[in-house]
Structure formats: C-alpha cells, structure tokens
Amino acid sequence: MKMDSQPLDGGITLIRLDGRLDIEGAETLDQPLTYATSTHPAKIAIDLSEVSFLASIGIRTLLSAARGQASRGGKLVMFGAQPMIRRVLQTAGVDQLLTLCDDLDAARRALAD
Question: Which range, 13-22, 39-48, 60-69, has the best average confidence (pLDDT)?
C-alpha cells in the first residue's frame, strides 16, 4: 500500500492510496495515515481510486482516521472508490458513518459544508 498527500486550495489535504488495503496494506498505512490525520484539525479527502482490495482491517484503519479527525474538529471524506470497493464499504455500513463521494469535486463540496 502506497500513500502520498498534497495540499489543495481551500485548506484541503488530498491523500491518495494505492494498492491492497488488506492486513499488510493496513500495517503499512496505519502509522503514516494516523500521523497525517491526527496531528491537527483538517479537511481531508482520501482518494480510493487506486485501492484494488479492501479487507475489514482496512475499513478499521479508515474509520480510525476519520474518528481522529472528527475528534479534533476536522472532517474526512473518501472518493473515487472502484465499484467493488464501494460495495464493500456500503455492505459494511461505512457509507452511513462517512461521506463517500464519486470524485474530487464532490469531495470538495462535501468538505465545504
């Protein structure tokens, strides 16, 4: 699992994930994602378009990051999930807890609210 981040206008941080978010991917991602999402309140958009597999441990990692942001007054949204990944998130009920957007523009609008 690879992760990179970049600042966008409007105070948004874009985090791109690439690879399998299984047990190995979650272990690789856990520390850098926790650091990126828990150091200060922020508007964070996570790009899931290159995530090819999502296991329950990966869902936990994403929810933990979102909870960390919410506890600091920030907000985290996800966008661009491939159909299979989106189904996994919906089946697990993650779409009831976090905002899932189709693309970056929709994620920007969700973060502006």
Answer: 13-22
DSSP for residue 39: S
* Cα gap 96→42, rounded to integer Å: 21
Mean pLDDT check: name the lowest of 6-15, 54-63, 66-75, 79-88. 66-75
SS3 107: helix
pTM of the entire predicted model: 0.93
Q: Which residues pair with 20 in a beta bridge?
A: 53
Report helix, strand or coil for 51: strand
As given in the structure block, the two tokens for residue 79 are 């966008």
The contacts of residue 20 (CB under 8 Å, 6+ apart) are 1, 51, 52, 53
CA-to-CA distance for 30 and 61, rounded, in angstroms? 6
- Mean pLDDT, the chain, as a whole number? 92
Tokens in use for 12? 């948004």
